[in-house]
Amino acid sequence: MRLILDIALTHIVGRGRQTFVAVIGVAVGVGFSIAMAALMQGGQDDFVEQLIDTMPHVQITDERRTSKRQPAEDRFAAAQISGLRPPDDRRGIINPTAAMAWLDAWLPGRYSASLRTQGVVRYVGREAGASIVGVDPATERAVSPIVGDFVAGSFIALGAGGNNIVMGDRMADKLGAGLGDTVSAVSSTGLSRAFRIVGLFHTGTTARDEGEAYILLKNAQILSERANAINDIRVKLDDPFSSPPIARRIEAELGYKAVAWQEASEGIMEAFVVRNVIMYTVVAAIMLVAGFGIFNIVSTITHEKARDIAIMKSLGFSQNDMQRMFVIEGLAIGGAGSALGWALGFALTTALASVRFELDAGGQEITNLPIAWSGLHYAIASVFALGSAAVAGYLPARRAARLNPVDIIRGAS
């Protein structure tokens, strides 16, 4: 084995210029694959982190995933029901005190109950449609990232007493109102109450900044004429990725629809899977192109060393020895290219991470590219490189091993 290794290295060194070009080809492929994977994974991780921070990990509403079973279905073996109109149940989540006590007993995280209703906010002849959310400021602060997005006033002022309201800054601009002004909130039932603006927030999400307003839970219940009602419980867990089983447990116990953030963002998560498939397909294509360079080098060596192969086989070297020798040559080129590619990938990733820019996206500034540092990216790129190198070395090695030494020496090939 040591002799075969020495011969393989001698062949590689003997064609130094071509070997160097092949190594550089592999290195560039590995380096750019690592940098691309770091950038794409970093963007995905950053987006998922924003989802986790901005969305409730589990959201419980007063809806039910399936319609309530009708008495006729229990009484008769076959029943067809059409034109069924469910009663207008405005109670929200029934017996919310018991539901929250049950959550307190085992939930590994925090939650906040609220009453969400649709209405209109008016000011000096202008009006804006709004989702009016009644909350308890003490519990809401533990689950909502909106607390840190205020550009005027604060979320704490909501519970300072009186009829107070906080809203998105774009809604305030649309109304022409500002901090300290008094607006009228009109519910879907037609009831109207006056509220003083004590805070303006800017999340960067247009739908929220233009269409959300928060008031105290008791005020929302009065405004919507739903005494002691809640219709939404938002949960933040200690481990966000444990959301699906916890959502299933809550739904099984309470009977109300509980949606984990993964389910709510199912389309986005599927898009990430497709994007990752595309990314690794591109990596494989880059490595395949680099493999052609290795194939060209080993094929040339095989052709030029035909008489040496014949002499070695006549001295007792087997076909497996010949194949092993040329595969080693391919792997040596691939290994050297991978090592150099690691350095290039690290340099490119460092350069991308150091890029700083300012982007004003409605009040949000992104100052650097999201980069994911992972040893897995280096390992995957090296596996692709060594795999393509092994195949590129094996194909000419197989041909060389089948050569008849007598025909070669006689000049038949």
Plain-language structure description:
The chain has 15 helices and 12 strands. With 413 residues, it is of the alpha+beta class. The chain has 2 domains: 2-52 and 268-410, no CATH class; 87-262, no CATH class. A 6-stranded mixed β-barrel has the order 2-3-8-5-7-6. The protein has a two-stranded antiparallel sheet with strand order 11-12. A hairpin with a 4-residue loop joins strand 6 and strand 7. The longest helix is centred in the N-terminal third of the chain and has 39 residues, at 16-54. It is a multi-pass membrane protein. Residues 19-252 form the MacB-like periplasmic core domain. Belongs to the ABC-4 integral membrane protein family. LolC/E subfamily. Keywords: Cell membrane, Membrane, Transmembrane, Transmembrane helix.
Radius of gyration: 34 Å
Count of DSSP helices? 15
H/E topology pattern? HHEHHEEHEEHEEHEHEHEHHHHEEHH
The CA-CA distance between the termini, in Å, is: 28 Å
Biggest β-sheet description: 6 strands, mixed, barrel
Q: Give the tally of β-strands.
A: 12
What structural category do the secondary elements indicate? alpha+beta
Total number of domains: 2
Task: Provide the residue-averaged pLDDT.
Answer: 82
Query: What's the helical proportion of residues?
Result: 40-55%
Contiguous low-pLDDT stretches (5 residues minimum) are none
What fraction strand? 15-25%
Lateral strand order in the biggest sheet: 2-3-8-5-7-6
Report the principal-axis shape.
Answer: elongated
